Amino acid sequence: MSNNVENLSPQIIRRVVKEMEDLVSNPPEGIKVLINDEDVTDIQAYIDGPAGTPYMGGVFKVKLTLGKGFPQEPPKAFFLTKIFHPNVAANGEICVNTLKKDWKSDLGIKHILLTIKCLLIVPNAESALNEEAGKLLLEQYEDYSQRAKMMTEIHAQPPKISKGCSGEGPLAKKHASDKSKLTAEKKKILKDKKRTLKRL
Length: 200
Prior knowledge:
Elements: H1 10-25, E1 31-34, E2 42-48, E3 59-65, E4 76-79, H2 109-121, H3 131-139, H4 141-155, H5 178-199
Antiparallel strand pairs: 1-2, 2-3, 3-4
Helix pairs in contact: 3-4, 4-5
């Protein structure tokens, strides 16, 4: 991947670095940014699947790519985690008005990440990049929801974090041997997939 740092002015780079530092020290709920010290224009974040959606329980990795026209031109946004969503293309590209016709140069990275999280709550079938997902969302919501849940269960499992963030669930029993834990997780995922496939 090419490094865009040389394409941006020092003033813009400072703005991006400050925004990223603010996002790390004061993260929005359900969003965790990852800092790339080598290339500040490579912005990646984890977004928790919002409650009450088919994406609940999943953790989705997204990437923003700042071009040389930033901030006059919007960044490109991609899901790196596979997802079944009307506004996400097969290559992960995200279609949302904020990154197209509604873009304003003073909108920050935090605003973009929150917009992507909102898209998980309220998909827009009118500007579908994934036509199948858009059609199901409008015509057969239950099928859409089941398909999105299955993709979430398969592809959007939370990353393993060594220090326990909460004392509940399988992470609390981290002291068990890793092999048996992996086998149990694989069995659970397989069982979930089968159960979901039966429902479809």
